[in-house]
């Protein structure tokens, strides 16, 4: 059933050295329960028992929620003789402490859990250590969830959700199918403000280097997936009189490499030519009747007569 109390607010949240603007929603149960039950109830319906960041938050909770005879459990308990936040297992810092006068007193020697006094005549908004078996309302929080991410084209989405699906601290990365690679390798994380730390990568077809047209030859490529990408294939041919040395077809592999070396077009040694230009405006001749000693500038021998 829907709990009766929902209060929306936002606080600057300190995560390590980062200050983020977190949007929290607080929720309280309408029934009293033990600490263990309260933790389970918050985890099931929301995120956790409240983790209080600062004195203003204590004050705000005291103003926002109605008095409850047995008060409210919050997310602090004693572990190995130290007060820790149950959501993070981090020790409570001195600045964050907000004990009521004379507390924590461990009066019954088993006061290992913490409650907050809401609208109490004395010490309103302050904390008290209590036996965990006592029954109190659960005071929970949630943070604004992040947008749910879709599976990428040509890949799958792999996510970890330490808190709830696509919410605070969820992290996702994409795994691409064969022939595709993600545009980023770092996982994206859902921040406390309900935004992803970065756009989710997409899967792009793996590219091969653009092949060179062989000298005295030609190249004809087809691209079923993308421009010189995975599965593109190129056919090589040589001009007449040249011989293809190497494979006449290359295919782009999933790793972004061609499956062979680019071929070359090999010609024979240049055949003697009737007009072989060796120097501007000087011509040798063929057949060799009109011979070297006889040639003159700008004269072309065609039949052996000069
Ligand atoms: Ca106490």
UniProtKB/TrEMBL annotation:
- Pfam families assigned to the protein according to its UniProt record, in alphabetical order: Lectin_C, Sushi
Keyword vocabulary terms for this entry: Calcium, Cell adhesion, Cell membrane, Disulfide bond, EGF-like domain, Glycoprotein, Membrane, Metal-binding, Repeat, Secreted, Signal, Sushi, Transmembrane, Transmembrane helix
Check the record and name the SMART domains matching this protein. Answer: CCP (SM00032), CLECT (SM00034)
Keyword hit for rRNA-binding: no
Which cysteine-cysteine pairs are annotated as disulfide bonds in the entry? 176-203, 238-265
Q: Where is the Sushi domain?
A: 144-205, 206-267
Annotated Gene Ontology cellular component terms: extracellular region; plasma membrane
How the protein sits in the membrane? Answer: Single-pass type I membrane protein
Q: Which PANTHER family match?
A: COMPLEMENT COMPONENT-RELATED SUSHI DOMAIN-CONTAINING, E-SELECTIN
This protein is called what?
Answer: Selectin E
The protein's organism comes out as: Varanus komodoensis (Komodo dragon)
